[in-house]
Structure formats: C-alpha cells, structure tokens
Design a protein that fits this description.
The protein is mostly helical. Helix content is 63%, strand content 0%.
Length: 210
C-alpha cells in the first residue's frame, strides 16, 4: 500500500497527499483494494496516468480518485490482455455462430463464451428481447473467461477434426457425449486441461465408482 501511495503521489503531486495523507491512515484504501491482484493495481495506475494525460491535453485538471473509484479502475478489460473488447467479441460471435468450427477465432475466450451461450440460440434468437438476453449472458461468460486469462490460465481449444457436415450421426453423437462428459467434469471441479475421458474416470471415482 505504501508503494501505491508513492505512485499516486508522484502522479498527482501535492493534491493526493493533501487529500489522503502520506499513507493509508484510515485503512479505506486497503479495505477496497485488498482483494485485487498486483497486476490489477498496475491496470489502475495505467488508467490514472491516461486520465491525467487526457486532462492535460484538454486543458483541465485531474483529481485523485476515491478508493472505490480506483478499485473500479483496476478491474481488467479484455483489451488489457490483448483480447477483443466485449462489443467486438459479441459481434464476432453473432457473425460466425452459424459455422463456429470453420471460423478462425480472434481468441479462444470468444469461442468459449459463444459456446456457453449456445450456437443454436445465437443463430435463432431473432427477437430484440431474446437477443438482449443472449448478449447479457455472453458478456457475463466472456468476463469470467477474461478473469481466468488475467489469472494466468491458458484457455485451450477443443480441436474438432472435420466439420459437422462431414460427420455421420454416430460420430456426432459420440462427440456430443464427449463434450457432455467434459462439461460434467468441469462442473465437478476437474482441471480445465483434463480431457473428457480423464474427466469421466475422475468423476466416477469421485462418485464412488458408479
């Protein structure tokens, strides 16, 4: 916290010290920022610096944020990790929901969020109300995946050999079974890198061999 105060003091000068002092005397900053990772604090500082630069260009003055406002500035956006913004990701999913296996996705998180919403729903959600609900669900799923990327997790694509049009019913049913097994394993807390067969073995073991 002392390092953060020093950084904010350098950015805002005497304005920060006069408003908040030389250290977090009341504990207000610690209370708001304690749940955040160091990388998130770095995001907040970059946004503070940008705001100060924007204010200087506009001929105005930037003032230090409150602890709550700074905590909000620390929340990662997809762009902070090189991912498409939520709006860009949503447009990509809508445009390619009819043939997701043939599209080269900008990031695996976009494809996974689209799959979580459901490709059929995305291609058949014609009404405005239904589309808005799908978009809200997508944004929630995408935000959760962005947080996983922020935590250092490598999202792995589930590679499909061939397209659905090249598969017979038995092959499609087998693939659906594998994906269902994978979803069950993930719901049971199995590691995300575990394949469906490993997940089913672990799931059966967790259920007492049933």
């Amino acid at each position: 916290m002392d390092e953060l105060f020093n950084a904010l003091g350098e950015l805002y000068g005497s304005k920060f010290a006069s408003q908040w002092g030389a250290f977090d005397e009341t504990g207000a900053w610690l209370a708001e920022l304690q749940p955040l990772a160091p990388g998130q604090l770095g995001i907040g500082l970059r946004r503070v610096r940008q705001q100060i630069q924007d204010a200087a260009r506009a001929g105005t003055e930037a003032w230090p944020p409150t602890p709550l406002a700074f905590a909000a500035m620390c929340q990662p956006k997809p762009e902070d990790m090189g991912l498409p913004s939520e709006g860009e990701a949503w447009r990509e999913v809508v445009a390619n929901a009819h043939q997701p296996s043939r599209h080269r996705w900008s990031h695996e998180a976009v494809r996974m969020a689209g799959a979580a919403v459901g490709w059929w729903d995305l291609t058949h959600g014609s009404s405005g109300t239904h589309t808005s609900k799908l978009e809200r669900t997508f944004r929630s799923e995408y935000a959760a995946l962005v947080n996983r990327v922020m935590a250092g997790e490598q999202l792995q694509a589930r590679t499909l050999i061939g397209h659905d049009s090249q598969k017979n019913r038995a092959e499609l049913a087998e693939r659906a079974s594998r994906e269902a097994a994978q979803r069950q394993a993930e719901a049971a807390g199995m590691p995300p890198r575990m394949n469906s067969e490993q997940g089913m073995r672990s799931l059966r073991a967790a259920l007492g061999g049933r």
